[in-house]
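Hi W.,

Here's what went into the run:
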Amino acid sequence: MGAVSPLSFWNDTAAKQSIIEFVERVTRPDTPDFVAEPDRIAVFDNDGTLWPEAPLPFQVAYVIDELKRRAPAEPQLSADPMVQAALGGDVATLMAGARHDGLMRVLALTHAGMTTGEFNSAVQMWLASARHPRFGRGYDQLTYEPQRQLLAYLRANGFKNFIVSGGGADFMRVWAERVYRIPPEQIIGSTGTVKYELRDGMPELTKTVDYVFVNDGDGKPAGIHQYIGRRPVMCVGNSDGDQAMLEYSTIGNPRPSLGVLIHHTDDQREYRYDAKPTSSGKLVSALQAAGERGWTVVDMKVDWNRIFAD
Amino acid sequence: MGAVSPLSFWNDTAAKQSIIEFVERVTRPDTPDFVAEPDRIAVFDNDGTLWPEAPLPFQVAYVIDELKRRAPAEPQLSADPMVQAALGGDVATLMAGARHDGLMRVLALTHAGMTTGEFNSAVQMWLASARHPRFGRGYDQLTYEPQRQLLAYLRANGFKNFIVSGGGADFMRVWAERVYRIPPEQIIGSTGTVKYELRDGMPELTKTVDYVFVNDGDGKPAGIHQYIGRRPVMCVGNSDGDQAMLEYSTIGNPRPSLGVLIHHTDDQREYRYDAKPTSSGKLVSALQAAGERGWTVVDMKVDWNRIFAD
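Here's what came out:
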């Protein structure tokens, strides 16, 4: 490592060392491990990996706030049992099942019929006013500083960073370019079908409930294939929902590869959890696999000297 | 225009002029029409726009060759009426309907159950041996030279080029990076769902017939939104199937934009057609709209001094 570390918010521990060694190894020309720039694909989960997912995934907080705003004027909306669960804060019901059917239903109900422009405006309005219940900041002010450094470090070394998240692609695209410097075409998330039409002569795309692709679990390698079309050499996640894409990136990859798991261990500065079976962020099976697979486990309390921007 | 034209395979006609004027206009800093680099998104149709689509779209030729190769050993395959249509060369039946249901069925039948690696190998083998019936060359040797110059010219001016095609994304990705210098993550096409699994401990993605997204007609702006997440400022197509994405790129776009239609007018060097209702490449409605919309129409016979590489 040089005199000035490119990852100053990371402590000088084995986790940081493994990342820097990997990047130096694949960027050294004329060696067997060299990876050409177009193949330096890095994929990052978002919720719990680049920003928190507690006490609720932030998009769930958005949906609940939207329902509170809209339900009084739309009684047919509040009649739905899953909307009632959301309004009552019953997140376990929304998140139950591998595909989070309740949440998907509420997302569909709140998003269907909106144009993409209307949706963007609604998310922007929410970001401008909503505050995280514990940290008292706008949600887009709560991304992890060490991870923003890591994204910049990879970019400086010719990597192309992608987000591969179970969250909605359209939701992340509203703010991710500004916050992570990741452009919309490098954001893969859950998506619903949109319908194109000329309305009063102007092109409009309207969200529908016809088909929803859930980019989580086994859906993540499928999404990576569909959107990127080649295997990543670096994959960063924090939960069992990321295990499939960690496997896909690192097992049997003809190129050198690095898997990284962010472990939430810091209840002082952030949250401490891994086994939370009823919500997102459960990290049991992937943590067990990390040793055998050689994935780097980042202990947030030990490995990061800063969590959020001051 | 400078002394050395960047588009030497284009004649000095109005079509070339309109492209160069547009690129110069949006790349001149400190002017109202300046477009920042991340927003310089250009989308290109493939069949009939970057390479020929006659006498058959090249992927249809691939599928028919695949069926001929596989049918003798797989009688359940040849029992299907659409497979029989394909083996008999009845392309009109395969291409009938806006969504080309027959072709989609044959694609599904031939692709389902293959891993992505097996599919890549099959396409590569075909490219190495199959020859175009009229030109006697491998299909990947038949891309349009003026268009490869245009792609390079746009790239040199900070544009990011995407393919937005009704053809299969996986089919194009096998050869498009080598031929067009467009990486797989910038290729949007029709896609089927893939299923992820660990097979004997190794990650595999297998093609299924569960859901097929057809990236044509109104599907093209929907695909652009889903994959790119912002409106292109330049759009190049050649058929009515490209009209929706031409509209989406140029009508009411807050940024300056350019729509381009390639018109097949040269039966000596390539093909001459526009109204072919039973196959791909029908160009009637979009050609009528071009005047009103201000789209540039490229007359291949007049505007291009070369079609293919020597």
